[in-house]
């Protein structure tokens, strides 16, 4: 079984267990669920350099990246660096994240926060809001067009922005809905883990103007960002390049300052 299918199969079990432990009605009563959200799309649109900086302890492709930071220091560091958004991985088994990370991140910064998760059920969208997220990720490779439609409209009703991630033209075809705010081209193939910025270059012209376009994964230089900007990318999702250093916030700050020049 390929890795993506394995993650999704594990996720199904995890979500079923979570649902049996905490009912939706309880999530909906939480303080965080009943707050006003921030718009990640708006933040990207209004910024000249839209960096979405990610908190990522480990990944299936790299194993351990960094376990030495607290989520709070990373969130504060990224905010201080001038990031336009914060991405927090909440998958535990493959990425070492948790919903607690999301709560801590929310308490520590005022950036729009993306719940980085393999979403296969509306329950996880309610959970995202109840733990402080402002936006959710939908991965076209693991969803049917019907699910993309259903999950994205559900998220919009909760006031969350929707980032739809694609890796090829077929995935884009099933994703062009008004309930999607941001389209992210993943430069990393989630089956093979190979990274190529060419993916962002090739797919850029196929993405209609009304969506905020971002490029995700494997971005590790100023050059990479500058190369992709002329293709219409307004945002860049960067994790490992910042997290592998001994000060993620400082690393993001130096990166963003360089881009401003
Ligand atoms: O650490 P990187 O190479 O900068 O990548 C960040 C982000 O794009 C990546 O973590 C990611 C993109 N799409 C995903 C889907 C699930 C989990 C993780 C991801």
TrEMBL record:
It catalyses: 1-(2-carboxyphenylamino)-1-deoxy-D-ribulose 5-phosphate + H(+) = (1S,2R)-1-C-(indol-3-yl)glycerol 3-phosphate + CO2 + H2O. Its EC number is 4.1.1.48. It comes from Bizionia gelidisalsuginis. Coiled coil: none annotated. Belongs to the TrpC family. Keywords: Amino-acid biosynthesis, Aromatic amino acid biosynthesis, Decarboxylase, Lyase, Tryptophan biosynthesis. This is Indole-3-glycerol phosphate synthase. PANTHER family: INDOLE-3-GLYCEROL-PHOSPHATE SYNTHASE, TRYPTOPHAN BIOSYNTHESIS PROTEIN. Residues 6-254 form the Indole-3-glycerol phosphate synthase domain. Signal peptide: none annotated. One of its GO terms (molecular function) is indole-3-glycerol-phosphate synthase activity. HAMAP family: IGPS_B. Pathway: Amino-acid biosynthesis; L-tryptophan biosynthesis; L-tryptophan from chorismate: step 4/5. Pfam families: IGPS.
């Amino acid at each position: 079984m390929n890795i993506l299918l394995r993650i999704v199969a594990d996720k199904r079990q995890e979500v079923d267990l979570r649902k049996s432990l905490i009912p939706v009605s309880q999530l909906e009563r939480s303080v965080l669920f009943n707050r006003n959200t921030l718009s990640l799309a708006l933040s990207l649109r209004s910024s000249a350099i839209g960096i979405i900086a990610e908190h990522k302890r480990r990944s299936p492709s790299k194993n351990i990246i960094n376990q030495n930071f607290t989520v709070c220091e990373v969130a504060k560091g990224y905010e201080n660096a001038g990031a336009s958004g914060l991405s927090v991985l909440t998958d535990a088994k493959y990425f070492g994240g948790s919903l607690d990370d999301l709560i801590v991140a929310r308490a520590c910064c005022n950036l729009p926060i993306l719940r980085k998760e393999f979403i296969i059920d509306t329950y996880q969208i309610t959970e995202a809001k109840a733990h402080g997220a402002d936006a959710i990720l939908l991965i076209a490779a693991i969803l049917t067009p019907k699910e993309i439609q259903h999950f994205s409209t559900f998220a919009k009703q909760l006031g969350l922005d929707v980032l739809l991630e694609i890796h090829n033209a077929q995935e884009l075809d099933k994703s062009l809905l008004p309930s999607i705010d941001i389209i992210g081209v993943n430069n990393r193939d989630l089956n093979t883990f190979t990274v190529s910025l060419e993916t962002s270059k090739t797919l850029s012209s196929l993405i209609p103007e009304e969506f905020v376009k971002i490029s995700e994964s494997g971005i590790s230089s100023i050059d990479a960002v500058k190369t992709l900007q002329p293709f219409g990318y307004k945002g860049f999702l960067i994790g490992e390049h910042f997290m592998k250093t001994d000060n993620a916030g400082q690393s993001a700050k130096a990166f963003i300052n360089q881009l401003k020049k």
